[in-house]
Structures are given as C-alpha cells and as structure tokens.
Design brief:
Distance between the termini: 25 Å
Oligomer: single chain
Number of helices: 11
Largest sheet: 4 strands, parallel
Strand content: 15-25%
Shape: globular
C-alpha cells in the first residue's frame, strides 16, 4: 500500500488491519521517522502495520516495497491544487513518475490486483451531470493534468502488459484527519478559532463523500474480480455549493460567523472546476457499493475531530 500516511490512506490501513489483512505501508521518508496520519491510529492498529520509509519517485525503493505483495493500494500523490501552480514539475515527478514506478514493479512481480486512485478533478468542469465514467477528461490544473497522466499510465499497463489494474475515481472525500488544505477542514478550523471565515469562490458545486464510504469502495474493488480493467466513480450523487457548505458548517458551530472573500484563495478563472456531481451507478451495479453516511452526520463527525485536534491546524494561514 502506498500513501498510507495520508488522509484516505490512514483510514484504509485501519480498516484493512481490522479485517485481518497483513499491511505493508509506504510512508515518505523523513528524518523524524514521522508516519503521518498513521500516528493517530490506536496502538493496537499501528503494531500490526509494517511501515516502509521510502520515496515513490525512487524506482529501486518501490520495487523492494512491492516484492512479495498480493494487492497494491496506490493512494500516494501530491493533491493540493494551489501548490500545483507553484511546483508543477514536482507533481509530474510524484504523480506520474511514482505511478510508473509502482506499475513497473507490479508488472515485474505479478501482483494479483493494482488499485489505482484517481480524482474527480480529472473531469474538469462538468459538461453534463451527473458525471459518469465516460465523461471527457480535462486538465484544468497541473494537479489534474498529472493525475490524468497517472490514470492513463495505469490504463496502459493493463492494456499493454495485463497488469490487473482497477481504478477508483473518488469525488470530494472528507472526514476526520483531513488536512486544512481541503475546504471542509478550512471552514471548520477557522470557525472554531474565531468569527471570520476566509474563503475563495462560493459558487463552485461539489459532491461530498464521507471517508468511510470511500474506504468501502476500495475494499469492494479489491474483492471484485469483475473490477479488473475498469474505472469506477465514487461519490454521493448530491450537490452542494461551497457557500451552502459553509452555512451548514456555521450552523453546526452555533452560528455567528462571517464569510469574507479572500482573493488569495481564488483559483485562476480557467482553472476553477465549477461543478462536480457524481454518477456512481457503475460502482453500485458492479461492486454493490452505495454511499451510506449523510452529509449532516459526516460533517458532525468531522467537526468533533477537528475540535479535539485543533492544535494540528493553522487556521490563520492559507494552507496550499
């Protein structure tokens, strides 16, 4: 498994260990021996994980990681869209180059399943809604472009070499442990710290899916033989504007918050994805997957986590 120390990855590791799986987790090397969000897991879970410190862009390290493994869950990526404007080459090296290294290692060692993680950002602003898997792709940010490249590499390794790839394309996943780089923790952490919430555009429309539902999708695609060679959207099928989302969160926080437009947080006009609404009919039909957590319940759980861990956040800063 790669990207295990991230938001979705840490939740997936926890679920896999609870299911009795033997988990080898790739976490990017750092001198602090910091395992990222895996550090927040209970000791009973952490003690069952084999953590490998490496860098996805190193082909030798990824080859050693993959040797002897049956299933690869590939969730490792740079994901902050604003930072992709600053460091596009880093995104290509990590998201495209890292995927290539893993795919080549999977090909070499004949893994049973390679589960690749895409993103709804690859669709760009919707040409029609709800968005199904046949919707055209459009790279409206360097991040989206790098993920399209990684998706196509995964597709090519299935078609060219028979690597048993299945791709999941989650829409906006949220929940406990998510960083302030994402919109929901940004709103919550600012609202818990004061009465001013600084945001960019309020009109973009998003489809929000709670993290436990996204993790269910990963488990189901790993268990389904018919998933090989296929792509699946994961989302709620429900739409909310950023402004409506902010008001829902403000209500959960007891009201009394003011939203202020912050130009620093506005994406370039051609780069802003204005509408994303998921058609998850294929996942329902093939995987038997359905989203189960309502946005009200999911937001309440997320608020509770951030309230208890507010010291992890820097709400006074714009986290790119």
């Amino acid at each position: 498994m790669t990207g295990a120390g991230g938001f979705i990855g840490s939740h997936l590791v926890e679920r896999l260990v609870e299911l009795g799986a033997r988990v080898r987790a790739l976490v990017r090397y750092n001198s602090r021996n910091d395992w990222g969000l895996l550090e927040l897991l209970p000791p009973s879970i952490k003690n069952e994980i084999e953590v490998v410190l490496a860098d996805l862009t190193d082909p030798h390290a990824t080859t050693r990681l993959v040797q002897g493994q049956e299933i690869i869950f590939h969730l490792a990526a740079l994901i902050g869209i604003p930072y992709s404007y600053i460091a596009p080459a880093h995104y290509v090296a990590t998201n495209c180059g890292g995927a290539l290294n893993l795919l080549e290692a999977a090909r070499k060692y004949g893994v049973e399943r390679f589960i690749h993680t895409s993103t709804s950002e690859t669709y760009g602003t919707a040409q029609y809604t709800p968005i199904d898997e046949a919707h055209p792709l459009r790279g409206q940010s360097p991040y989206a472009a790098s993920k399209i490249g990684a998706d196509k590499l995964a597709e090519s390794y299935y078609l060219s070499f028979g690597v048993p790839v299945a791709t999941l394309r989650p829409f906006n996943t949220y929940g406990p442990r998510q960083s302030a780089r994402a919109i929901i923790p940004t709103i919550i952490s600012q609202g818990l710290s004061g009465n001013i919430i600084r945001l960019g555009r309020l009109t973009p429309i998003r489809d929000l899916n709670f993290v436990s539902d996204t993790v269910d999708g990963f488990i189901k695609v790993a268990e389904c033989p018919q998933a090989i060679g296929e792509l699946f959207n994961l989302g709620s099928g429900r739409a909310v504007t950023i402004g409506q989302l902010a008001q829902k969160i403000i209500s959960l926080l007891g009201g009394g918050k003011e939203i202020i437009a912050d130009e620093e947080r506005v994406r370039p006009d051609g780069s802003e994805v204005m509408e994303l609404i998921c058609n998850y009919g294929k996942a329902r039909k093939v995987l038997g997957w359905e989203p189960r957590v309502s946005i009200e319940d999911g937001l309440s759980r997320t608020v509770a986590f951030i309230r208890d861990h507010l010291h992890f956040y820097k709400p006074q800063l714009y986290n790119v």
